Amino acid sequence: METMISEEMIRDDLLKTFHRLFNVNVLEATPIKRGWLNLKWIVTTDSGQFVLKQYNKRRLNNPEALLFAFSQQIRLFAQGLACPKLLSHNERILLETDNGERFMVMEYCQGNLIPPGKTNVHQIYDLGRATGKMHRLLNDGTISIKKSPQFIPPSREERLAHWNSVWKQAKEAGKTQLLDDIETQHRATEEINIEILELLQLGWAHRDLWVDNLLFHENRLTAILDFDRLRYDYPQLDVARAIISCALDDNLDVSLASAFIEGYSEERTVVKGYLTISLRLLWYMESTWWIHANMVQHSVPPVRFAKEMRWLAENQNKLPALLGNI
Q1: Of 106, 139, 163, 294, which has the fewest CB atoms closer than 10 Å, so is most exposed?
Q2: Cβ atoms 279, 247 nearer than 8 A
Q3: What is the C-alpha to C-alpha distance for residues 300 and 290, in angstroms, rounded to an integer?
Q4: How far are the Cα atoms of 44, 68, 75, 226 from residue 143, in angstroms, in the given order?
Q5: Angle value at C-alpha 30, between 29 and 35, nearest 5 degrees
Q6: Hey, CA dihedral for 203, 209, 215, 219, is it positive or negative?
Q7: CA 125 to chain CA mean position, Å
Q8: DSSP string covering 9-38, please?
Q9: Can you give the pLDDT at residue 300?
């Protein structure tokens, strides 16, 4: 029978190992209640503040990819990107406790989380500039390209079959309140120009650039967090994910979207219609993640992501007119 391990037991195990490896005295450990399965604490010591992140065994299914992401975060930090400094012991970033818990240590970054859709024009401009810098550095030729991206867009026929199946599942389960949302996704799939997705530029990207992974102080970005999902994919996914997360409240604030693109274009070339295509790509990838027959209507953050997918599907054909040249 598998022994149940509490969060407190994991915390104490990590703190004991942290003290032993880095020779610091822990004064306080405050849990960070964000993320799925992985546990995190802000740890105050006699040598400053750090963040300890435990990797749940259910999520640590590709340690090689995680170690690669760590290596790139180290490189980005060294070149001035606003992100946490990772600590190593004997040149190892992914550490292990005596009880077999995997974890990493990073320096604590000052800053505040901003609620979805509530950044100001200066904050999102600075985020755009930092995102452009991150993409420029990640794709400067230091690391080789791959044969194919992480996300390979399925055909229209595959997606329509998917939405038909989801509609049937919801109907049979008596979840009639979900049917309108599913029909909206189906209709947007019929209307989208799939061919434009084949013209997108591939490259290395963060792939989790939303408000919970961003810290701000006043009008400045202080840190991009959580590089665990960094993969070879479409950098435009980062652009769309950041903008939809930071600039969509009830509707998309186009002035905020424009400010992000203005900052981004200081580091990377942006062509006409860049954001329209980026948002369509994001919707095509993420819609099946957040709109489904097992949706929990009041679960946060999934309810936020479902709202974003609903808005993108409903405004698929309006995006060019809404966004203009950006």
Answers
A1: 294
A2: no
A3: 11
A4: 35, 10, 11, 20
A5: 125
A6: positive
A7: 18
A8: HHHHHHHHHHHHHH---EEEEEEE--SSS-
A9: 61
Tokens of 120: 């100001």
Q: Amino acid letter at 255?
A: S
Produce one character per residue of 138-166: b if its CB has 16 or more CB atoms within 10 Å, e if not. Answer: bbeeeeeeeeebbbebbeeeebeebbeeb
Distance CA 316, CA 121 (A): 24
The two tokens of residue 89 are 């012991």
Q: Judge contact between 323 and 198, C-beta under 8 A.
A: no
**pTM greater than 0.85:** yes
Angle at the Cα of 200 from the Cα atoms of 206 and 208, rounded to 5 degrees: 15
Q: Tens digit of pLDDT for each residue in 174-185?
A: 999 999 999 999
113 Cβ contact partners less than 8 Å away, ≥ 6 residues apart: 211, 212, 214, 215, 216
- At 216, list the tokens: 């701000």
**What's the farthest any 2 CA atoms get from each other in the chain?**
60
Tokens of 95: 């550490």
DSSP H or E segment with residue 180: helix 179-191
Measure the CA–CA gap between 143 and 138, rounded to whole angstroms. Answer: 7
Give me the average pLDDT of each 10-residue run along the chain (326 residues): 78 97 97 88 98 90 93 98 98 96 97 97 98 98 96 96 98 95 98 88 97 98 97 98 97 98 97 95 97 76 93 96 94
Q: Are 270 and 246 in contact (CB under 8 A)?
A: no
Helix (H) or strand (E) holding 233: strand 231-233
pLDDT in tens, 196-205: 888 899 999 9
Rounded distance between C-alpha atoms, residue 314 and residue 154, angstroms: 20
